[in-house]
Amino acid sequence: MDHLRTGLPLSHVRTTILSLLAWGALLLTPAVTRAHNPDTSYARVTIGEHDVRFRFTYDLFTLQKVVALDTDHDGRTSRSELKRGLPQIEAFLRRHIGVELDDTSADFGAPAGYVWPPDAGDAIAEPDYHTANGLVHFDFVRPIADTPENIVLAFRFNAPLSERHTVLGSFISGGASHEVTFTRFEPDYDYATGYEPPLWKRLWQFFRLGVAHIFLGYDHLCFLLALILASRFRELVKIITSFTLAHSLTLILAALDIVRLPVRLVETGIAATIIYVAVQNLRGAPTEKRWLLTFFFGLIHGFGFANVLGEMNLPTTGLVRCLLSFNVGVELGQLAFVGVMFPLVLWLRKTKLANRTSTVISVLLAAFGAAWFADRAFNLGAMPL
Predict the structure, then answer these.
(1) Half-sphere exposure of residue 243, counting CA atoms within 13 Å on the CB side?
(2) Of 147, 248, 319, 327, which has the fewest beta carbons less than 10 angstroms from its beta carbon?
């Protein structure tokens, strides 16, 4: 959900005025007893140990814009009419409200029922649609394995709601409450819960991320395959060792913000390394000194690994250990790939089609590298892999 964060230009003056008006109305009527400001809804996020609870509150006038609740056209909305409209209301909420937990796209969980206004009786007449008698709460619960460190809540302000629509939100964690106002100009908020998981959980999280990144980082796998294709075992040991040392160095330097390179430059450089090694294979270039070249290329790939970590909230305590844990995950994933592919390459070399197959694979790798290079250099976005 950078997805969620829209990057819209902010109008602080207008937002401040809307916020003061909306919160003023709320303060003048504690607990929203009777009055309710039009074009205003409410959101409450309660962070617990085992779940996160979401409550979204809308008046019936707003809900009528989402779904036609008064199906019998008698100027009243009954409990049964609201119940029939729940599927459409829930679908609307899921389309227009985004959630991230620990910078990972999520949702607000399963519905946990709705709360009908206690003093409204069995039906609410149209004149009360804008009062507390017209406010309906919709509850959702999302189970969690661990308390998230941060939660992003984002509202997509578009039809059928007014552009002036304001959401008064609150985040509740550990008994403390934090109020937020969402508007079309400031539609999202990143709330830090203050929770820090134990170090061992962080280490395990970074280790798994390192393993996953290797198997989902198709450009890194293509680079490794190009190296394996023309190398003997002794040369491959030197190549993997130099590659590991190099990318470990730049990974740590970049993650600690000591050295930084533009993301597009790094990603384009990684694509260039694939093209170069694949073309060298096609030319039949000697591989005895390839480990020296691989060290330089490994420096570039290390910046690529660091870009992955840059999208996370890196811890302030145990940071170096977390980086090392990520690197160990990368290495194990890398060794697993080499352990599977190198025996296949050895078997291929014993077949009659060895040269032809090696040529075809190298051409394909060079083509993929060229496509990635063009896509990243010109920011085309056609190849998300």
Answers:
(1) 25
(2) 319
Predicted local confidence at residue 35, as pLDDT? 58
Buried b (16+ CB within 10 A) or exposed e, 308-327: bbeebeebeebbeebbbbbb
Helix (H) or strand (E) holding 135: strand 135-143
- Pairing relationship of beta strands 135-143 and 110-115 according to DSSP bridges: antiparallel
Q: Over the stretch 21-46, which tens digit does the pLDDT of each residue have?
A: 444 444 443 444 455 677 899 999 99
DSSP 44-111: EEEE-SSEEEEEEEEEHHHHHHHS---TT-SSEEEHHHHHHHHHHHHHHHHHHEEEEETTEEE---EE
Q: Which residues of 122-143 are buried (b: 16+ CB within 10 A; e: fewer)?
A: ebbeeebbbbbbbbbebbbbbe
Query: How far is C-alpha 26 from the geometric centre of its chain's CA atoms?
Result: 33
The structure tokens 């997509």 sit at 156
Cβ-based neighbours of 128, under 8 Å, separated by 6 or more: 60, 120, 134
Cα three-residue angle 86-87-93, rounded to 5 degrees: 85
Residue type, 91: A
Q: What single letter denotes the amino acid at residue 64?
A: Q
Place of tokens 């990243």: 376
Q: What pLDDT is recorded for position 381? A: 79
DSSP structure string for 229-287: HT--HHHHHHHHHHHHHHHHHHHHHHHTTSS---HHHHHHHHHHHHHHHHHHHHHT---
Name the nearest CA neighbour of 202 among 146, 143, 279, 277: 146
